[in-house]
Amino acid sequence: MNTSASVSRRRFLMGGGATLMWIPSGVKGYTGHEMRNMESGGGLGIGVSKWELDTPALLVDLDKLDRNIQSMQTMVAKNGIASRPHAKTHKCPEIAKLQLATGSIGICVAKLSEAEVMFSHGIEEILLTTSNVTAPKILRAMTLRKSCKGFIQAVDTVRNAEDLAEAAREAGIVADVVVDVDSSSHRTGITPGKPALGLAQIVDKSPSLRLRGILCYDGGSQHVHGFGKRREQTLGRLAAAGETARMMDQSGLTTEIFSGGGTGTYNIDHETAGFTDVQAGSYIFMDAQYLAIGGANDDETYSDFQPSLTIMTTVLNAQYPGRATTDAGAKSCTINKPWPIVSGETGMAYTSGSDEFGTIRYENASRVYDVGDKLELVVSHCDPVVNLYDQIYGIRNDKVEKVWPIAARGSSI
């Protein structure tokens, strides 16, 4: 473990405002069900303290969330591109609406079921970044497209393009399609250059499909440590997709969409000619994984966005020296690494390897905890953590201001 880097990240976390950990006795723990009932009845006007929440609970600091969204919009505008944030991160229509209201041109989703949930909550501009290859999914996609005029789906094989064209024809619609171009990871996407151009030409010639452009997501570059190395790898991998876009332009094909990138490369992707919008997702929340990659001004800590997402947990056992046990284990935090970070404190390490319980271990700790104390954790990896919860509590000035359902939780098909 890089000790100096760890200390730097903890100083950044504390610089954003250390969290008070002492909780007064007699505090009531409101369950998620109670909080949802209070919200629907207008009861949140009383300003319930976040410390009143029963745990484990998922929280988002609304001021930090707002700042993160604004920071993204400011940077993409400066760089002459747009944001099309990935809703797989938050799975929450209300947050998607915030992003759209502040300038994003649409949202991305990873799963068709996420697209269906978002549309059912009034969101129209949706780009599905994963290909639909089975007959049931293709049928569902065309059904969605009938109602959702802003729905765009990806394709990366000739056979899939033919299947989409047939299904769209049978549905009596023209389906909007982008060609998914491989970034060299060989996870999804067609080979750039002539293969991608050929697929785009097939799509363009189909009466029941409408070519909108390309997407190229380079997931392997998002967490490269050090801005210089990340920039070099990103631009190198995007070059072939950029050349593909140029070939399409020369062939008279539309490239109105050239979408890709993410939180780790949001301030790099625009350097590729023709690139139109970044698909960043984690920037709104941040997590321990992203904090560790370093930024343009600090090779150790990625401080472009503030960690707004936390898990509140309660200490259950504090009777053994050098450690304490909490109620937030793998089922609340996942087992992704690096492990969660105790917010606002130093000299302690948190692990969530047990299903139900988390463990705090002290080493020259800034404080120790008693049974019943509550604390907040910066999450390890925000996307899978969000998928563990039914709702997220929007906090401002330590008070609950919003209770947002995570409506697309479990939407994985």
Could you explain the architecture of this structure?
With 413 residues, this protein is an alpha/beta fold. Helix content is 32%, strand content 19%. The chain is built from 12 helices and 17 strands. It has helices at residues 3-15, 32-40, 62-78, 93-101, 112-120, 135-147, 158-171, 194-205, 227-250, 288-291, 330-333, 382-386; strands at residues 57-61, 82-83, 107-109, 126-128, 151-155, 175-180, 209-216, 257-260, 277-278, 309-317, 323-326, 341-342, 348-351, 358-362, 374-378, 391-396, 399-405. The strands form 2 sheets. Strands 1, 10, 11, 12, 13, 14, 15, 16 and 17 form a 9-stranded mixed beta sheet that branches. It has an 8-stranded parallel beta sheet with strand order 2-9-8-7-6-5-4-3. Helix 6 packs across helix 7 and helix 8 (194-205) crosses helix 9. The protein is globular and about 70 Å long. The protein starts with a helix and ends in an 8-residue tail after the last strand. Mean pLDDT is 93; it is low at 16-26.
Average pLDDT: 93
Radius of gyration: 23 Å
Summarize the biggest pleated sheet.
Answer: 9 strands, mixed
Number of helices: 12
What is the beta-strand fraction? 15-25%
Shape: globular
Distance between the termini: 37 Å
Which structural class do you get from the secondary structure elements? alpha/beta
The low-pLDDT segments are: 16-26
Question: How much helix, percentage-wise, in residues?
Answer: 25-40%
- According to DSSP, the number of beta strands is 17
Write down the secondary-structure element order.
HHEHEHEHEHEHEHEHEEHEEHEEEEHEE
